[in-house]
Structure formats: structure tokens, C-alpha cells
Amino acid sequence: MTGKHQKDQHFVPTLFPYLISAMDQYYEINEIFEEEQVVERQRIHSAEIQNKKMKILITTFWEYPSIGGLQNYITTLKNGLEKLGHSVHVIAPNHFPSKEMEVLRTRYSEEFTHFFINRYGSCNGKILHNISKLYSYYTMLKDIDLEQYDIIHAQDRYTANVIGILNRSLQKPLLFTPHGFMTHNRLKFNLMEKGSVEEIYFSAIDRQAIKNANQLIIVCDVFRPILINLGAEESKMTTVYTGIDFGGWNIQKKRKKSQSNMVITCVARLRPRKGHMYLFEALALIKDKLRDVEVRIVGDGEMRKQLEKQVNELELKNVSFLGSREDIPKLLSESDIFILPTTSDTLPISIIEAMFTKQAIITTNCGGIPEIIKNNYSGFIVEPANPKKLAKKLSLLLRKKSIRKELARNAQAFALKHLTTSNMVKKIEKIYQSLF
Question: What is the third-level CATH fold of 3-244+424-434?
């Protein structure tokens, strides 16, 4: 055995003891695992916070700023809170020097590799990657002065775990907003083996994130049973629908520049779970009804070539791929029907955008979509991965202008009442203030 390996054997990961304990249980290790001792103190409650401007920290485990729904949510929340006079900082791993983070991840990856092999006789790659990032992020965050903040709002389960440790001595109000269904979804879609060490490990992360939080802000009610199953209390969960700001855009219908009589738009990343393949299969079933109809596919992603090939094979000559665009409100204002055939989602921003721009919407009953789109009232909802039903509803909308107008009008009315940035931010501000 080399001297380096002998040194690494002394590495003891004490920061996230519940993760090691969960793995010990899986591997039937009976050795007691000691955690790092942290001195806790009582949080000082102050009624004055409700009458003053707060200093708020929003944290994420992913890059920020970047492209994506989570990043848009953070930006919207940050800007909205700042308009109310609060001071808001965002911290993400990419805010730290990249070379230092790379050195830390390499170091922890080596140390955990030896630790896992010595303790369990094997090393799971996904767990190794995750726990190395957790330790690296913690190492950088521990030098941040968290005492200065009145509120800390974690935007993912990993950050909620890291901040949870740092917050033991501070006892700051900590909130957690899950933006995905975490381990639950990975099991549902066979991306993780049931009963595996990965399920044990990542479920422990889910449970601890909930345990660490004073309050859970959820983006739709569909999260509730999943979180309760992980130990969340109903009284500590508040649903706040994601709001968007269409300020500066004329959200009324504009004269279409297209020569077509009808425009169908789909805005989504070109990835498997967005269901574009089922949309194209549906279009092929009603090809004879698509004369003078233009279908715009907005977005880019890893499936673009595959989807373009499918369109060519189905001879869907009226389908065009527009790629990533910055003028989504404009494109939607020129559109008549919006389709999102997703097979897995929480609360897609693209649907909310379509509601504001008065679209007749066809989508699926995934995640929280049925909470904002009422079937046959503000849109049509079909089962995911069902081209025949999708084609049937689309055919109806193409024929019946009166139905298109009624669905679009109802969708826009709901969005204007419930899905504005102002509504979202004020509700979250009220939750912050309730924690003092």
C-alpha cells in the first residue's frame, strides 16, 4: 500500500453523517458514525423584521445565471424582491474560482473513492460525483458571512443540505423550494434502480433537505404527497405558483406575419421528456387537415437531429424548427394554438407564457399542469405519449374557432389573476416575514 493511500485511509467524512449512515444500513455496516459537532444557538425572534427591508440569500447547486426554468425562477424572484426594496444575493458554485472548485472536487473524489472502497468494498460513481460536489460547495460556502442575511432560500435539495449544516450555529430562517420531484421521479422513470444504494443515498438527501427547512415553498400542489411521504409537515408547506412578467410586451394578438391561416407553436427544449415525437406522430395522423397551417418548433437540444429526421420521414412539410429564441412573447402573439406534449414536468413556464398570450392550449396531465389548466375550460389536457388523442383535440381546435377563443380567453384570465410576478413575489415575501 502506498503512503498516499495510507494517508487517505484516515479521511473521515463527518459533514453529512446521515448519508454515510444510510449507506451503512444498505451495506449492513454496524459501526457507529460520528458527526461533526456544531454548537447550536437559539434564534432571536424579532417583530421588527416585518417592518424593515430584508437581506436575502438565494442559493442553488446549479450554475447561475444560465438558461433554464430554475434560473429564470431565481432571476424573477430576485428582481421582484429588489423592486420591493429588499437586498438579494444569489450564490451558485460557478461564482467561486473554477480552478479552486476543480481542485476541491478532485481531492474529495480521491478521498471518497478510497473511503467507500475501504468501507464498502465498492464505489458508486453517481454517489461519488455528488458527495464530492457537496463537500466542495460546503468548503467554499463556509467562508461566506451568512450572519449578514435575514433569510436564506435554497432552490434545490443539495443546497438545502449544505446550508443546513452551516445554519446550525446561525439558526437563520431557511426555506427550501424543490423544482423537481427528486428521487421519486428517477425511480418512476427507471433512471434509478428501486432498492439500490443510489435510492438509499439520494432519498436521505431528500429527507434531510426537508428536515433542515423552516418552511417549504412549493410551485404546485402535486409536490405535497411526495414531500409528506419524505417527512414534511402539511403546516410547513405553502404553494406559490410561479409567476412571470410580460411587462413591456403587448400581450394582445398581433397580425400574423405568416402567410398561413393558422399557426401552431410548441416552445420546449428538444429533449425526450418534452414529447415532441408524439406531437409529430399526431400531426401525421391529420396531415390532410394541415393545409395552410404552420407548425413552429421553438427551442433547441440534444434531440434536434433525431426530430428533424422524424419530420422528414413523416413528410411534415409545414413544420419548421426555429431553434432557441429570445422573442417568445412575440412568437406566441402571432400564434393560435400552443401545444406542449410533455411526458414529465412540474409547472412549465412555456404554458404560463402561452396563457398570457391568449393561446388555445393543448398539453398533458403531468405534474402541476392540471392545477393551472382546467380541462375543457382553459385548455385541453390529454394523457402523455398518446398521439391519437392529441390529434383528435388538435383537429377540433383547427375546425372550431369559437372553442379556440373561449379556451384562450379563460386561460389568459387565470394567468392575469394568479400567475403574475407581482403575485408570486408578494406571497413569498409574506412567507419570509412570517418566520420572524
Answer: Rossmann fold (3.40.50)
